[in-house]
Amino acid sequence: MLEKLAHFNRERVPERVVHAKGAGAHGYFEVTNDLTQYTKAAFLSEVGKKTPMFIRFSTVAGELGSADTVRDPRGFAVKFYTEEGNYDIVGNNTPVFFIRDAIKFPDFIHTQKRNPQTHLKDPNAVWDFWSLSPEALHQVTILMSDRGIPATLRHMHGFGSHTFKWTNAEGDGVWIKYHFKTEQGVKNLTADVAAKIAGENPDYHTEDLFNAIEAGDFPAWKLFVQIMPLEDANTYRFDPFDVTKVWSQKDYPLIEVGRMVLDRNPENYFAEVEQATFSPGTLVPGVDVSPDKMLQGRLFAYADAHRYRVGANHNHLPINRAKSEVNSYQRDGQMRFDGNGGKSVNYEPNSFGGPTEVNEHKQAAFPVSGVAENVGYDHHDHYTQAGDLYRLMSEEERERLVANIVAAMKPVQRDDIKLRQIGHFYKADPEYGTRIAQGLGLQVPQEV
Ligand code: HEM
C-alpha cells in the first residue's frame, strides 16, 4: 500500500510553462518535390521518400485542463524521425508572432496568464502590454480575426513562422519559411459558438482529432517553402528575420515540398504527448537557423525547459529518441534508463575507436560584420502589414474582427490603455481604429 500511495503522490510532472494543453498524433511525411538544389537534408532527398513523424497541437496560455476552443494561437510542433536524427519544426498556426525579441517573452506570457493577486485572466495586463508593444499589432489582428478560433485542429494551417536556412551539398544557402497548408480547408468558430462548446466540451479539439484518426479519416497537410536568396536579406524592404512580418508571396512564392498525413493515435497520452519534447534547436544537416533574435532565444529556452520538465535524459524516452543511431559522450544523470553507453569510452578525442565529431555537418561559414551590441530593432513599421490584412477582409470579417476586439477590450479599466491601443489600430487603417473607438464609446486620440 505504501509503495502504491507513494507512487501515486508523484504522478504529476510540471506542465509546460506555455502550450500546456495539447493533443498529439503520429504520421508520416512524404516528399513530393525535388528541392535537393537547396537542401542536403536526407529526409528531403528523393521524391516519394517517407519519414515517420509526430505532431503536437496546443493552445498557448491555458493550463493543462483548460478549454480547447479559446481565442489563442495554436501550437503546431512537428518532429521528423529522419535517418540523420530528429528534426523539429516548432511552429504555430499563425505566420507571425506578438514580439520579436526573446527577452520580452516571459513578460508577454505573464500578461496572458493569471493576475498575481486575483489569479484571474487580466485584460488590463493583456492590452497594457500590447499597447506598449506595437510590434504585436499584426498578430493581434490575426488573433482577433476569424482565424483566432479554429473549428478543429485539422482545419488550420501551420507555419514555422521564423526564417530558417537551408544549405545544399555544395554548402550554398538560402533563407526559407515553412507553410503547412491544411487539405481539410480552413474552418473557424465564431466567438459565441466557441464559448458554448468550451462550456459543454472543453476537450472538443482533442476529441475531434482522436476520433477522426480512429475512424480512418486521416488529416493531411501540404508543406510549402518560400525561398529567399541569401543576398536579398540585405536589401529587402524590411528585415526578413523579423518574426512580426510575413514575406510577400508575390516576391517569394510558395514552393511545394511534401505532404504530411496523421494516421495513428498515441497509445498512451503521458508517454507520447506529455513527455514529448520539441525544440527549434533540434536540426539535421542541411537545415540551419537564422539571425532572428526570437529564434536565437528559443534555441536556449526549449532544451532548458525539457531538462526541468522531463529531465536531463528526456531524449532517451521512446517518443523523443531518434530512430537513427545517435552517438554522444553524454553519460549518467537522473533516469538514465538505457545501458548508458555500457563500458565504452566516455570522452573525446580518444584512442579507443569511439565515435568522432563529424565536421562535414558543421554550419557553413557565413560573413559577419558590424558592431555587436544589445540593440532593439531599428525598423518601426508595425502598421503596414496589419493594415493590409484588415483591408483584405470582407465587410463581414471586419465586423466580426471589430466585435471581437471591442468585447476583449471592454473590461480594460483604464482609458489611457484603450486609447493607446486605438491609436495603433488607427495607424494600421483609419477605419479600423475609428470602428474600435466607436465600439468602445471613445474618440480616436488627437495625436495619432
Ligand atoms: C512551447 C519558450 C516563442 C511555439 C514552449 C515552451 C517554452 C517556450 C519554454 C515549453 C517547452 C516544453 O516544456 O516542452 C518560448 C520562448 C519564445 C517562444 C522563450 C520566444 C523567445 C515561440 C514561437 C513559436 C512557439 C515564436 C511559434 C512560432 C511553441 C510551441 C510549443 C512551445 C508549438 C509547444 C511545443 C510542444 O507541443 O511541446 N515555448 N517560445 N514559441 N512554443 Fe514557444
Structural class: alpha+beta
As residue ranges, the low-confidence spans are none
The hetero compounds bound to this protein are: protoporphyrin IX containing FE
CATH topology descriptor of the largest domain: Catalase HpII,  Chain A, domain 1
CATH class of the largest domain: Mainly Beta
- Whole-number count of domains: 2
Q: Give the integer mean of the pLDDT values.
A: 96
Shape: globular
Quickly give the CATH architecture of the largest domain: Beta Barrel
Keywords: Heme, Hydrogen peroxide, Iron, Metal-binding, Oxidoreductase, Peroxidase
Pfam families: Catalase (PF00199), Catalase-rel (PF06628)
InterPro entries: Catalase (IPR018028), Catalase_3 (IPR040333), Catalase_AS (IPR024708), Catalase_clade1/3 (IPR024711), Catalase_core (IPR011614), Catalase_haem_BS (IPR002226), Catalase_immune_responsive (IPR010582), Catalase_sf (IPR020835)
Binding site for heme: 302
Describe this structure in words.
With 448 residues, the chain is an alpha+beta fold. It has two domains: 1-121 and 148-318, Catalase HpII,  Chain A, domain 1 (Beta Barrel), CATH 2.40.180.10; 381-443, Hemocyanin, N-terminal domain (Up-down Bundle). Helices cover 28% and strands 17% of the residues. It contains twelve helices and ten strands. Strands 1, 2, 3, 4, 5, 6, 7, 8, 9 and 10 form a ten-stranded antiparallel beta sheet that branches. A hairpin with a 5-residue loop joins strand 6 (164-167) and strand 7. It is globular, with a radius of gyration of 23 Å. Residues 16-19, 22, 56, 58, 75-77, 90-92, 97, 102, 105, 161, 243, 276-278, 294, 297-298, 301-302, 305-306, 309 line the site of protoporphyrin IX containing FE.
